[in-house]
Amino acid sequence: MSTALPELPIRRLTRDDLAACADLSEDRGWSREESTWGLLLAAGTAMGIDDPEDKGLAACCVLTPYGSGLAAVGKLLVARRYGHQGIGRRLMDRVMEAAGGTPLALYATPYGQPLYRKLGFADIGHVERIRGRFSPSAAGSVAEVRTRRATAEDMPSIVELDAECFGLDRTSVITRLPGMTERLWVAEDSRGLTGFAAVWDSSEQHRVGPLTAKDSGTARALLVAAAGSAEGPIRTDIDGRHRDLLDWAVAHGMEPVGSTALMTYGTDRLPGDWRRSFAPLSVATG
User: Facing residues of 38 across strands?
Assistant: First the structure.
């Protein structure tokens, strides 16, 4: 049974709120993903409402800006006990006000889509989540692509490649990956880096994202490398336009588990080169 929530103030969240944010994720049936929350609280603007019963947070949302060209909205969460009281709408109104005229993008579950559509967001695509373990035959099909663990010397090239593919400068986010992810992988040929992928630790299964590569074959090799280093099942969200990669992954042991809509406000398209962007950093950051 929900408890009536008064018009409590919305405040800026800090890294001191990381555990409370993770608790709220868990309350909604999601993984805690404390490493992702650490990145969001460091690189984004997180807003929240404290639980009036002193039980952590009643709600939260994060705005991650990428200059004036785009900002990502993520982690709009309302505690189950405060659902259907207009709190999510109130937080989104504040987030959109904070963004000013900057175009917005977000990934929406079917549960959240009606609210976002009321606010003026439009569907422009989707990602498909897959999870599981690759079969041994997957490794043999990508042997010609060279992959290895990233080093500190690779970071300038990774930042440059990300800017080319994402279409905006995400230096403040990408340079934090080595310290916040479990592993960072790169693919390369004789001319330099051709792709990269980050592996995030999780209590349930490791998550891979971003997955950026010059072509589908390179993306396959990075996924296999990431899966091999995770010592357990992985999950990732693949852009639905990369049907060949999705079909290949399912044929080699991965399982499709759901689809998430990509929605935008203030623009009908995203910058960058989707042909080389196979999976987002996360559905919370774009």
Answer: none
